[in-house]
Design a protein that fits this description.
Blueprint: E1 8-18, E2 21-28, E3 39-42, E4 45-48, E5 51-53, E6 56-61, H1 63-68, E7 79-84, E8 103-113, E9 116-122, E10 136-139, E11 142-145, E12 153-158, H2 160-165, E13 176-181, H3 183-194
Antiparallel strand pairs: 1-2, 1-7, 2-6, 3-4, 3-7, 5-6, 8-9, 8-13, 9-12, 10-11, 10-13
Length: about 200
């Protein structure tokens, strides 16, 4: 479980094919502190640390993860948002994020507005019930607030600190981003869908 508060960024240093999976080696300021079997959020996707060497850590993304997230677009040099899992004694500064991306969205608009940045994120209409006005959404693992919500898009505002310290600054029109919708909303939607069965 995560909070959507990015700790640092990592850089993809090596990518290997392993059957239908991809193995990534990532260099970051926290890599040397990680332990094998830890769960780490990578752009909002929970991946298990498999090895740690020389300030880098190794993770594997399976075929389903690659299909549903923007990890399939990662290349050497890609900047990745990283967050270690939540401690039960920690403050919940963002919102509860599982690290299970629901889908990818696409940036369809970006504008600097007097020191902050507004993005419009498009997504498949089938996910519309999971996004509410002023509700929480994780975009590349960043806890953000949705507004101007429609059935196929929502806006987010990014403050300078978040812009400078995450890979949201690299998101331009046409960029694919990982989306995880609010967990509570997903449970409610599921319960309502079962009423007719």
């Amino acid at each position: 479980m995560f909070t959507g508060i990015v700790e640092t960024q990592g850089i993809i240093k090596d990518i290997r094919e392993s059957g239908l999976n991809k193995v990534f080696w990532i260099k970051s300021g926290i890599s040397s502190k990680l332990k094998v079997d830890q769960s780490i959020s990578h752009d909002g996707v929970c991946l298990t640390v498999e090895d740690v060497k020389a300030g880098r850590h190794k993770v594997t993304a399976v075929a389903e993860t690659l299909q549903k997230t923007n990890l399939k677009f990662w290349k050497k040099g890609t900047a990745v948002n990283l967050e270690r899992s939540l401690k039960l004694s920690s403050r919940l500064d963002g919102h509860l994020v599982q690290g299970h991306a629901d889908t990818t969205g696409t940036c369809i608009f970006k504008k600097e507005t007097g020191g902050s940045w507004v993005y419009t994120i498009g997504f498949e209409e089938k996910f519309a019930p999971l996004v509410i006005e002023k509700g929480s959404v994780a975009v590349n693992g960043i806890s953000l607030t949705a507004f101007n919500v429609t059935s196929r898009s929502f806006d987010i505002t990014v403050i300078p600190y978040t812009y400078d310290n995450t890979n949201i600054q690299l998101v331009e029109e046409g960029t694919a981003v990982n989306l995880e919708f609010d967990m509570i909303g997903k449970y409610i939607s599921r319960k309502l869908s079962l009423k007719g069965e």
